[in-house]
Write a structure and sequence with these properties.
The chain is mainly alpha-helical. The protein has helices at residues 2-12, 17-21, 28-57, 77-84, 88-122, 140-155, 163-196, 213-228, 241-248, 250-265.
Length: 283
């Protein structure tokens, strides 16, 4: 069940792009809250509701669905719905729609990765070469680097019986949950520090509901999914260490990079009293 939650979470990853886009929005105080609400309802309608309909039509025993003994899947459940209904032409159209969605997801990933490489470069936390902009304001060097890495990751699916590709996929899903853990911690500490410095929470242009339960619940849930996604491997008589490594490789990779940076740069945690906020949002 927890392993399935990792796959579901991987499908949802990308919703945090709203925060990245805020830096390039013309009116973030107005547009970002509206985008947050729209993303929630769109996910509920186009993802959750669609999956509910599919689960009512396609039995879990359908041989075309992904099972534990199958490492690859060539038919989308969305396409299977139309195939079961005998609408083959509609199934072909759905494949085209899915391909369009995949291209859109790839475009969003390129945008986010480029900006997340560009911003640390501007702050001196990444090579300066990635901070250079084109005449149109595009961080081209960061975009080129992201494109090369993305292409190499894509090519790994063609070699080694997809073993390397599965490792990269697990790492991507794991780091996505680690990012959500960081977002939950950052949100909690931001709100706490803002209030402890005597500021009125109503001065913020957008306030997430259910605080502090929201970030606490998100942190605990993501932590359970991150640590328990392959707990079944430890319950067997013989532990498949290769499978365990493929599942959890993202955790040691993150810790090595994080602690390595802290040791190299001598950074420390920022206390609540040391946090800084824009003057227009104070008091």
């Amino acid at each position: 069940m927890i392993g399935v939650a990792m796959i579901v979470g991987f499908s949802f990853q990308g919703t945090e792009l709203i925060g990245i886009a805020a830096g390039e929005s013309e009116n973030p105080e107005k547009n970002i809250p509206r985008a947050v609400r729209q993303v929630f309802w769109r996910i509920l309608l186009f993802y959750v509701f669609a999956i509910l309909i599919i689960s009512l039509i396609i039995p879990y025993t359908d041989p075309s669905l992904l099972r534990n003994d199958v490492k690859d899947i060539s038919v989308s459940p969305f396409t299977l719905v139309f195939q079961h209904a005998g609408l083959l032409s509609a199934a072909a159209i759905m494949n085209a729609v899915i391909l369009t969605a995949v291209l859109s997801a790839g475009n969003s990933g390129m945008y986010a990765s480029t900006r997340m490489l560009y911003t640390p470069a501007c702050d001196g936390k990444a090579p300066r070469i990635f901070s250079k902009l084109s005449r149109g304001g595009v961080p081209r060097n960061a975009l080129y680097a992201t494109t090369v890495i993305a292409a190499l990751c894509f090519l790994t699916s063609m070699f080694g019986n997809q073993t390397v590709y599965l490792w990269l996929l697990n790492t991507s899903g794991m780091t996505g949950f680690i990012a959500w853990l960081g977002i939950a911690i950052s949100h909690y500490r931001f709100r706490r520090g803002y209030v402890l410095q005597g500021n009125d929470i109503n001065n913020l242009p957008y306030r997430s509901g259910f605080f502090p339960l929201g970030p606490i619940f998100a942190f605990v849930l993501c932590l359970i999914i991150t640590l328990g996604q392959n707990y079944e491997a430890f319950l067997k008589d013989t532990i498949d260490w290769g499978g365990v490594a493929a599942t959890y490789i993202g955790i040691p990779l993150f810790l090595v990079i994080w602690f390595g940076y802290k040791l190299a740069k001598g950074t420390r945690f920022v206390r609540y009293s040391e946090m800084t906020f824009p003057d227009r949002f104070k008091r």
